[in-house]
Each structure stands twice: as C-alpha cells, then as structure tokens.
Design a protein that fits this description.
With 124 residues, the chain is an alpha+beta fold. The protein has helices spanning 25-32, 63-73; strands at residues 13-17, 38-45, 52-60, 77-78, 81-82, 84-87. The chain is built from 2 helices and 6 strands.
C-alpha cells in the first residue's frame, strides 16, 4: 500500500534564523540542498521595506532530509552569521485585536455630525 506525501507537511519544514541580511530564496535553497530535495525555500521579507527580516523557512521532500539539515546546520555560519535551524512550528492564528473606534457603537450613545444643541444660540 503506498501513500502520497504532501510536501507541506510540518515535519518537512524547518525554520532558519540569523540569516545574513543579503540572503535571498535562492541562497537559502542552495545552502540546504545538500541534505535532500528542497521543495520550497523562502526568506521572510518586511512588508514595508521588502528587506529580509533575517529568517526564513525551507521545506524538504522528506522528513529525513529535514532532520539531517537541522542536525548538520544548526549553529553553522553562513556569510559570517551563525544560524539557528530547528523544526518549524505550525503558525498559530492570532486573535484579532479590537481597534479603538471600530469595535461597535460607543457606550455614551450615538453621535451625530451636527451641532451639540439644536436650540437658539446665545452670544451673551
């Protein structure tokens, strides 16, 4: 009986921290290719600057390749930076924080955009 293996299984994915700032996806893939078939390598970028955040993820075809990469690469240097390599953890969903002013009606009643008083104005 054969079973198909999906490449996105958590046990095939590793976290790589402490990457050189200039590292890109190809550099990451090349560094880990000697341990087995790399199906995905991604350096995480800052949303605003599009610069590396100094960490990334590598997914291997097999759990054995991922385990070997962790064993051989944790604590090694890449371009003068000591990297941390460990099994990636499943991303936990973050609770949505209430945003002030956007979380429902105010407790002191509705507000209109008009003047505070509808009566005649006295300048007196």
């Amino acid at each position: 009986m054969s079973t198909s293996v999906t490449v996105d299984q958590p046990e095939h994915r590793i976290f790589v921290g402490g990457l050189p700032w200039a590292a890109d996806d190809q550099d990451l893939s090349s560094a880990f290719a000697p341990f087995g078939a790399v199906t995905s390598a991604r350096v995480v970028l800052d949303r605003e600057t599009q610069r590396s955040r100094g960490f990334g993820f590598v997914t291997f075809e097999t759990a054995e390749a991922a385990a070997e990469a962790i064993s051989q690469m944790d604590g090694k240097e890449i371009s003068g930076r000591r990297i941390t390599v460990r099994a990636a953890e499943a991303r936990q969903p973050r609770p949505r924080a209430a945003r002030p002013g956007f979380d429902g009606p105010r407790s002191d009643g509705p507000r209109s955009g008009g003047p505070r008083s509808s009566g005649p104005r006295s300048d007196g």
